[in-house]
Amino acid sequence: MKNWSIKARVSLYYSAFLLVIAALMILFLFLTTDTAVQNVTEERLQQAVRESANGISYFENSIEIDPDFDFYSQGASILLYGPQGTPLAGTAPTGFPSQIPLASDTFQTVQNGRDHWLVYDLLVSHPDATSLWIRGIYLTDNTTAAIRLLHRIALIALPTLFLAAVLGGWLVTKRAFAPVDAMRRAAAEISAGNDLSRRLELPAHRDELYQLAETLNQMIERLQKAFENERQFSSDVSHELRTPIAVILSYCDYALSRERAPEEYRKSLENIQTQAKRMSALCAQLLELSQNLRAANALQKEEVSLSLLCDSICEELSLAAEKRRIRIRPELPEDLTAQVDETQWMRLLINLVNNAIRYGREGGEIRVTLRRIPPEDPQALAGRETVLLQVADDGPGIPADKLDKIFTRFYQADESRHAGKDSGFGLGLSYVKWIAEAHGGTVSVESQLGKGTSFTVRIPRWEDPAE
């Protein structure tokens, strides 16, 4: 059964469930019909006997029977007996034993051969007249035959119901799973054609299948973006490596084309070494980035004093800033703690400050601001207590049309940021974006040409227990 399709299994379960219900109903019918019919028969016989008593009148110490007295009422034969059991009127059914004793207000079952009767006796007394026995006799053979016929019909109907349940279950599940089959075929076509731009058709009704199709479309969209990012990433890496490789080959060809002076060989080797170091640095950054982004548990969150951490990083990077006569001015609260991954948060802050040092105005200033935002503040994230980190420089700024691209890997707005020979590979800000989002936060940038650039990171101060 484990290899059966869902439709087959649902049809089987549905049919088995209906079969069990039908079997229980038939069993209940078998167990209750005899008792129910017996009770109805007794009630009807008792009613017939008691109504017959209304056809008897008393006059001057004697009993008179109405001329229109019905000796066959509601399927029962009515017999009248004297006080001592002497037959007075009425005819017993053929084969009924005559020696059955009278018993007032009592039901008796009488059998003679294959015939069965139900007997009910009633003693009618009058203070001024002689008492009278009224006996009702009902032949139960017809009722028993009807019950047996009903049982046979039920037994015959059971397999018919089962077959109908199997067929009905198959038709119902086939119709119910038709949208799932359509999704499967569409997904197979998308997979076979490697066309992630296609989407599954959403059902007309907003039910569970609609939600499933919508979720699958969202997954395909994420896969499409991931593949496009990987394709772009591979293209960017190839582009970054192509230039130093071309330079290395060019200097090798130059050095090997003819005999040269030692100084020329040395200059070629120095240029080759420079390009090789650049390639090595790029490979190291890519490896580190890949290991961090793909780690199963990339974040190890704990309560960290962000105030002390930011202060120590600003002090550590102040030496690099002094080379360009840039002053780092931290604006930090006394002791702001948050639940973060300390290592990743250090990398985020180092990347932002180094970026500001590299592209800031020489002789200028970098402001590092850290503060807590209460949940009710409009700047808070989804009504949660938020930590805001802002790193601002007074450099040349970034053109507005390039602000949405600076978090893309390998992107560098060199012409606006005046990158020097020590410029990076455009991976730092993409790493910052990943770290912020991994903490459940966001990163944004604001810039004005000639006035500077400000990066703002917002993360929840405490981890949500539900997450």
Your description of this structure?
The protein has 467 residues and is an alpha+beta fold. It folds into 3 domains: 8-163, Beta-Lactamase (2-Layer Sandwich), CATH 3.30.450; 208-291, Signal transduction histidine kinase, dimerisation/phosphotransfer (DHp) domain (Helix Hairpins), CATH 1.10.287; 298-460, Histidine kinase-like ATPase, C-terminal domain (Heat Shock Protein 90, 2-Layer Sandwich). Helices cover 49% and strands 20% of the residues. The strands form 4 sheets. Strands 3, 4, 5, 6, 7 and 8 form a 6-stranded antiparallel β-sheet that branches. α1 packs antiparallel against α2, α4 packs antiparallel against α5 and α6 packs parallel to α7 (342-359). The longest helix has 49 residues, at 208-256.
